[in-house]
């Protein structure tokens, strides 16, 4: 089984905790390869971090690999970053979700594997995980559940956890989705934080190109209601257990959506009470409050301490306090002006 990550090195605690959780959950990390993608110099910082804290300490060196990639020009063009260069250096969370390469690189991973690795080393399929997640069950169980149903032969290139909901998605414009034949009343949305991707199918179906098409279109017509890399998936894929309606006139100008398979909800459970966490296969700390924050809930801190040393947590808390004091100092200076 192969697992990919796209967290940059500033998420030190999150990356190390996630890798440790994969080692513990799998029981045999020699059978699970982890690939950490880093943009340019940040890949070097990931290597340094792993040398100090991870290689043969929490994970076998041979199965923990850093993939150094260059900034993707096609992504910058689609997102309009070239027209707004300030997006390359922004620290605003909403703008980062919209423009940060690391937030979108999951869709480039199949191509990057093909470009950077010899055929015998390339994963055929992989589980993508956001850095605000923890693996609590052997990931090979998920592979066993879905891998045979995915591929060029079935036309199913992607899997995502079922998201139980009584409401259909509000992220996309209903008029556009209906024109494409997507039955929105049955489409409760998906979460891009955990994905299962078949490389050959992804490339052959031009999934990346279709996602970029929608990202580019959003610049001019605001196709979807929220920024970030998740919304284009609603137009690029639809649940394989539903049947597309007949497309409406004009739908031919849109890329054809492809089916995705839904796997069990337990593989992407939003964090909550300990009873919820204990029944999860993957726990997802979605939202702005993360378990490595100094003001995180007691429950989330308790879970995280299973995978991170107290020394590393203390180091992280000091950094957060320093940043808070610096921000508070700047605010006080502005108030005086």
Description:
The chain has a single domain, classed as Spore Coat Polysaccharide Biosynthesis Protein SpsA, Chain A (Alpha-Beta Complex), CATH 3.90.550. The strands form two sheets. An eight-stranded mixed beta sheet has the order 3-2-1-4-7-6-9-8. Strands 5-11-10 form a three-stranded mixed beta sheet. The protein is 39% helix and 14% strand. It has 337 residues and is of the alpha/beta class. Helix 3 (73-79) packs parallel to helix 10 (207-221).
Please give the structural blueprint.
Elements: E1 2-5, H1 12-26, E2 33-39, H2 41-53, E3 64-69, H3 73-79, H4 93-99, H5 101-104, H6 109-116, E4 125-129, E5 133-135, H7 139-146, E6 158-161, H8 174-179, E7 194-198, H9 199-204, H10 207-221, H11 233-236, E8 237-239, E9 258-263, E10 269-270, H12 274-278, E11 282-284, H13 298-304, H14 310-336
Parallel strand pairs: 1-2, 1-4, 2-3, 6-9, 8-9, 10-11
Antiparallel strand pairs: 4-7, 5-11, 6-7
Taken together, the total number of domains comes to: 1
Biggest sheet: strand arrangement: 3-2-1-4-7-6-9-8
Percent of residues in helical segments? Answer: 25-40%
CATH superfamily (homologous) name: Spore Coat Polysaccharide Biosynthesis Protein SpsA, Chain A
Q: Uncertain segments of ≥5 residues (pLDDT<50)? A: none
| Second CATH tier, the architecture | Alpha-Beta Complex
- Note the main sheet: 8 strands, mixed
Gist of the model:
This is Hexosyltransferase. The protein is α/β, with parallel strands linked by helices.
Feature tags:
337 residues; alpha/beta; Spore Coat Polysaccharide Biosynthesis Protein SpsA, Chain A; eight-stranded mixed β-sheet; 14 helices; 11 strands; 39% helix; globular; metal-binding; Nucleotide-diphossugar_trans; glycosyltransferase; Hexosyltransferase
